[in-house]
Amino acid sequence: MWKLLGLLRILIMLLLLQYHVAVSLPSAPTSKHLSLSMQKVALFQFKLSLLIHTSASAACTSDRSYPKMMNWSMSSDCCMWKGVTCDPMKRNVFGLDLTCSHLEGVISPNSTLFQLSTLQFIYFDGNNLHGVLPDSIANLKSLTTLSLSDCNFSGPIPRTLGNLTKITYINLEFNHITGPIPYSLANIQSLEYIFLHNNSLTGQFPSWFNNFGHLVSLDLSDNLLSGHLPSNLTALNLTRLLALDLANNLLDGMIPSWLFDLPSLKYLYVDYNGFIGQLNEFNSSRSALEHFSCRENMLNGTIPQSFSKLVNLTHLNLADNQFGGEIPQWNGLILKGSSFYLNLSHNSLIGGIEHLPWDNLFILDLHSNMLNGSMPASISNSSSLCILNLSHNNLRGVLPSFPRNANQLKYLDLQSNMLNGFLPSFICNSSILHILNLSYNNFSGALPTCLGSVNYSLSVLDLRMNSIGGSLPSSLAFGKLRTLNLYGNKLEGTIPVSFAKFSYLEVLDIGSNHIRDTFPHCLESLPTLQVLVLKSNKFHGFISNDSKIERPFPSLRIIDLSYNEFSGLLPAKYIRNFSAMMNGDVHKVILGYMGYASYSDSIIVVIKGVEIELVRILTALTTIDLSQNKFEGEIPEYIGNLKSLRYLNLSHNYLTGHIPPLIGKLSVLESLDLSFNRLDGVIPQQLTNLFSLSHINLSQNNLSGRIPEGAQFHTFENDSYAGNLGLCGRPLSKKCIAEKREEEDDDDDDYFFSGLTWKAMLLGYGCGMVLGFVAGYLMFMAGKPKWLTKIVAREPGLIVSGMEIRRR
Fold it and tell me: Which residues face 179 on adjacent strands?
């Protein structure tokens, strides 16, 4: 009873407090400050207007993430509440930090929050305060910091925000704010930091931002801003601007030179826009620029020589544009010993690379240009080089040694050039090299036997399409190797048993070599192997089904054994246990690409009868290619369990028996090639269930019966069934027996009725008249002899009798 009375008393107090707030607190802006007790009431009313969930938003992963308002109570001092900061002298609430406090709801325009006129900072980041930010924010005249990032706010930025003349920090990034940036913000001369990143702001870049004489950082990236940047501004007022980020918008026109003349600007990002034209030379003597990035625009012309004079520059990214000419000459003052990031990839640059500042380079990416000349010996002078990508150029010659930076280099990509000579020995000396890609060059000799200590950190070794010979060293034992691609070389011998130690291996491609061996059963225990390509070698013999591994190849989803000399039955145990190809929810798989860091795995496969190179391998790609071997026997029924299989090629073997109807369960199958075998029987009607099937080849077998109709089968041409003499039906010109009978019946009827012309009818009518007169005359003259009467009347009598019977 007493507890019930206590609860009733608390409820009455809350109602009185709500009434007192409604009467006492003004709805319009006022300079009058509330007492601390009334501030406490306002805070508690604000708490009641929101919901508190136990789970935080996805953006909140720090230790600051907990429901701070959960323990707010009217029975305690509000200055002791979590997230509340009070002025110890004036006893006013001047700060709220409710970052990641699991809040949800809408801040209404008449929220008691806006009655706390003494508030100086607000941090509500990482909550779900959806809805529009009210104009009532202007009531907080003392506010200097407003941080509302990742709160799901929508609608425009309140124009009244410009009335907060004391504010220095605004953070509204990661919301859904729309519309233009209001001009009223130009009134806030005190603004130092503006973060509006990742919203849906529209309109043009604000030309009045030159008014912000105190501005330090402006981030408008990842919005929908459009139009030109103002070209008539000067750097007179923006003397404190340190960072400007306009990346990923719809801005176009030219990049004005005054941006590079801002005396304090260190970070300038204008990537992923539509800027055109040339970059003009600028006054580098005033520039403090350290980072400049304009990736993926439509800039052209030559790279300004001014960049080479920026003594503070440490990061330059001009990738994915249309720059031409040679790379500028870099002077000796550059970088002052700092590590330099230089990315000029995907342009049309020509010339050599000898003059680059190799002493200070940390990351150099020049791939996909038209650079030529030899690999400079000055690379050996680089003691800090960590990432080097010179792929897809016209560089030639041999690789210099890397004696000084062997312990720094982590990524080396020189693919698709004209380099030659033996493989560089420095790759044996590096203990931290992760990715080595020398594919599509003219390297020769043998694989270094020094490769493969247990502690070796190499993850990707890609030597495709070279002239590397010899055998695979048994010493290869890369502990962390993830991709080994030796396709298109001149390797001989066998696959070492040591490959069974590659416990991290995902891709193994040794296709198109001269390896003579039986099937490498040592690989079946590799837990992460997804891609196995042994095509176009001299593998031979049976693939044993007597594996000691209970579930061999548990992760395999691409296997290509084509163009070898394998014989015997199909590897039934392997097919039965390809669990990575049995995903029934294949349509729900999140698509991605196989790769590591900036390296993408790629293989050459036959898809729908055409050999293509997959530059990137989709994680949803599944294929079995056992074509061009000597396999015999029947196709196992349980191949229908591989529900995520997309490409199946068993052509050019000696397979017999029927086509398994269970193939009709492969709902995502796109290509089926069973040509050039000895299959017989009919084509299963269940194959019409394969709505994804766009290519089928069943030619050169002993199939018979009608070709199924329905689904995709009406799109397949004659070539899909050629050489099967027993097949009939569309699209073949050979008709089935039932079709022939129907056509013959139709032809007979047509022939009969086609003769019933008016001439034939008249002729028949005339002949009948003559015969009738002759018969009548003979009967009359002979006195109706009985023999004639019987002859003439016999058949009509039968007809009459028959008609009578039918009537009964």
Answer: 201
The enclosing H or E element of 664 equals none
What average pLDDT score do residues 299-315 get?
90
Residue predicted with more confidence, 603 or 450? 603
Answer yes or no: is pLDDT of 443 > 50. yes
Token pair 């030796």 is found at: 486
The per-residue b/e assignment along 416-428, b for 16 or more CB within 10 angstroms, e otherwise, is: bbebeeebbebbb
- Lowest-confidence pick of 371-385, 424-438, 534-548, 686-700: 424-438
Overall average pLDDT of the 683-712 stretch: 92
Distance, in Å, from the CA atom of 398 to the CA atom of 379, rounded to the nearest integer, reads: 12
Alpha carbon distance 346, 335 (integer Å): 24
Full-model pTM: 0.83
Instruction: Give buried/exposed letters for 377-389 (b at 16+ CB in 10 A, else e).
Output: eebbebebbbbbb
CA trace torsion 164, 166, 168, 174 (10° rounding): -20
Query: Beta partners for 145?
Result: 121, 169
Strands 507-509 and 483-485, how do they pair? parallel
Residue 253: predicted pLDDT: 94
Q: What is the DSSP string of 18-67?
A: HHHHHHHS-SS--SPPPPHHHHHHHHHHHHHTSEE-SSPPTT--STT-S-
Q: Report, as an integer, the average pLDDT of 466-482.
A: 85
In angstroms, the CA 15 to CA 257 distance is 63
Q: Of 499, 550, 545, 490, which Cα lies nearest the Cα of 520?
A: 499
**Average pLDDT of span 157-183:** 95
Among candidate residues 588, 569, 536, 589, the one with its CA nearest the CA of residue 653: 569
Q: What is the mean pLDDT of residues 467-493?
A: 89
Residue matched to tokens 């005359």 = 777
Question: Hey, where are the domains in the chain?
Answer: 36-201, 516-592+605-742, 755-807
Beta-carbon contacts of 643 under 8 Å, excluding residues fewer than 6 positions away, are 581, 582, 583, 584, 586, 665, 666, 667, 668
3-state secondary structure 665-712: HCCCCCEEECCCCCCEECCCHHHHHCCCCCEEECCCCEEEEECCCCHH
Cis (ω within 30 of 0) for the bond into 376? no
Asked if residues 228 and 255 have their Cβ atoms less than 8 Å apart, the reply is no
Rounded to 5 degrees, what are φ and ψ at 712? Answer: -85, -5
Residue 164 to residue 169: CA distance in whole angstroms: 11
Give SS3 for 513.
coil
* Region at 297 (left for phi over 0; alpha for psi -120 to 50; beta for the rest): beta
Spatial contact of 100 and 65, defined as CB atoms under 8 Å apart: yes
584 pLDDT band (50/70/90 cuts)?
Answer: low
- Contact between 466 and 491 under an 8 Å Cβ cutoff? The reply is no
User: Looking at the DSSP assignment, which residues form a beta bridge with residue 632?
Assistant: 569, 654
Determine the pLDDT at residue 146: 97
**Strand-strand pairing, 322-326 and 145-147:** unpaired
Round to whole Å and give the CA distance between 17 and 22: 9
What is the rounded average pLDDT for all residues in the chain?
84
| CA 359/CA 380 separation, integer angstroms | 9
- Domain 36-201 is in which class? alpha beta
Q: Assess whether the region 36-201 and the region 516-592+605-742 belong to the same CATH fold.
A: yes
Handedness of CA 535, 539, 544, 548 (dihedral sign): negative
- Burial category of 251 from C-beta neighbours within 10 Å (exposed 0-12, middle 13-18, buried 19 and up): buried
**What DSSP assignment string belongs to 585-638?**
TGGGPPP-B-EETTEE--EEEEETTEEEEESS-BTT--EEE--SSEEEEPPPGG
Residues 6+ apart with CB under 8 A from 805: none
CB atoms within 10 A of CB 476: 20
| CATH number at 516-592+605-742 | 3.80.10.10
How far apart are alpha carbons 631 and 165 in whole angstroms? 82
